[in-house]
Fold each of these.
Amino acid sequence: MTTETKPIFLLDERDILNEANECPIDRPLETLPLNQEHAFAFWQRDIPEEYWALTAEQIIERVRAARESLGNRCIVLGHHYQREDVIQFADLKGDSFKLAQWASSQEEAEYIVFCGVHFMAEAADILSQPHQKVILPNMSAGCSMADMADPDDVYACWDELQEAGIQGVIPVTYMNSAASLKAFCGKNGGIVCTSSNAGKVLDWAFAQGDKVLFFPDQHLGRNTGLSAGINVTEMALWDYTLPYGSLGGNEAAQLQDTRIILWKGHCSVHNRFSVQQIDDARNKHPDVKVLVHPECRMEVVQAADLNGSTEFISRTIGEASSGSKWAVGTEINLVSRLARENPDKLVFCLDPVVCPCSTMYRIHPAYLCWAVEALAAGRTVNHMVVDKETAVWAKVALERMLAVK
Ligand code: SF4
C-alpha cells in the first residue's frame, strides 16, 4: 500500500515568514516525535534521521546520558518560553541577557547550549570567554520581531535621517535584534536595552542626544517613552517597508520635532493580547490582577495593573499572596509553568487560544539531544560564531547598557 506524502520540503520564503509570524494554535505543548510535527518542514533539516522518530521519553533518557558524560564541561541555558521537555535540562532559566551573562561566568563550561533563539545565542557568544563555544540546537530558531529589523533597512533609515538633516539621534536597540545591529549601536554612540532596563536606558540616551531611534519593537519603545513622560504625539513610527526616500512615511519637519522614532516592528506573540481579553478576565474574576509584558500594545499595557519583563512577571507572581489571581499577557509556556509552580494562586493566560512562540518552539528536544550527543562524541554541531569586528562593537553597546544604573 502506498501513502501519499505532501511535498512539505518545497517551501518559499513567504511560507517560512508566515510560519514564524502566525500563531501556531495547532501545536501541542507536549512533545511529539519530530516526524509528526508538520512544522518540522520549516526547521533545520540536517539533523540525522535517527532523531526523527524518537519519543519524548527516549529523547529525555538520551539527553540525560549525554549530559552526565559531559559533566561540568557543558551547561544548558533555557529561556522562559521554552517547553517543559527542554527546560527540565536547563542549569539556569531566565531572560536572554541574564542567561548570557551567567554562562560567561561559568569558568568550567566549555560548551554553552542555548535553548532560546538566534539573537540570544549570538549575545551569549559575544559575552563568552575565549575557551567557550555557544551552541544553538536548531539554527532556524529565529525571532520574528528581530527579523523585522533587517540590518540593511536600519542602515538605510540612518542614512535617510542624516540626509534629511535630523541631528542628535541616538540609536537604541532592544536585545531582540541581530548582533550586527548591536554593533551598529556600539559604533554610532548608541546602546542596547532589555525589557527590564529600557526606562533607564532611555534616560541615558536622552542625556547623550535629542532623539532616539528605537528598534525593532515599536511597543516596548512607545510604552517606555510614555512611562518616561514623553507624549505619544512626540513619537513617530518608521515604516521600514516603504521605499528609500520616504522617511519611513514621515515628513522631515515632523521628524525634527519628534523625540522617539519607533521602528515598526512587533512581537507576534505579545501583539495578540487585547483590551477585550482584559475586560473578559475582569468580568470573570473581579479581583484578578492583570500583568502583561511591555511588548504588548500600548492600550493593553495601559489597561493592565502591572507590566514588566519575564523576570518581573515570574518574581511578582512568585512573591504574591496565596489565593491571589493573575491574568498574564505573555508566552504560554511561561504562564503554564507559573501556574504549576504556584498551585496556591490562580494563574492563567489572558489569551484563551494556546499560542506558543513558534520560533522558540523550534528548539524541539530532539535538537537538544543531537547537540549534546554530538558534544559527548567530541563533535560540535550548530556552533554560533559572531565575527570579531561585530562582536567588539556589539560589546561596546552592551557594556554601555551594563554601566547604566
Ligand atoms: S516571544 Fe516574540 S520577541 Fe520573543 S522570541 Fe518569540 S517572537 Fe521573538
Amino acid sequence: MNLQALCKRWQKLFRLQDWDITVEVMGVVAYHKLEVSRGWEAGVSNAHNVINSDRKKAEIFVSIDAPDKKTSLAHELVHILVNPLHLSAKSTLDCVPSKDVSDIMATHIEEGLELVVYAVSRALLSAESAEYK
Ligand SMILES: [Zn+2]
C-alpha cells in the first residue's frame, strides 16, 4: 500500500476523512530546500507537516531518506489529530504576560505533545501490524 492510500485508510480510522491530506515523498535536495524555505531546522526530522485546521487541509512531507516512511506518516498524521490541542495551548500561551515564562511553557507543551504523538502513532502502528498477522 502506498503512503497516500495508507494515509486515507488512517484518516478514516481517526475520523479525519473530511480532511484533504496529501503525502509527498521528496528527494533529499528538494526536502532540504523545503526545510530551509519554511524556516524549519534542517536535518533534524525525516518528515514535516503543514496544517490548516480552518480549511481541513494538511500536507505531509516525507524525506526519501526516512528509514521507515510508514512510521513517519503515522507520526505526522497524529500531529494533525492533536492539532486542536496544540492551537489551544498556543492561544493559552498568548495570555501569559512574561515572554520568558511563555517560552518555557511552550517548550514543555511541545515536548508533551511530541510524547503524545509518539505514543499514539506507535499504538496505531502496533494495532496495524497485529491486524495483519
Ligand atoms: Zn513530531
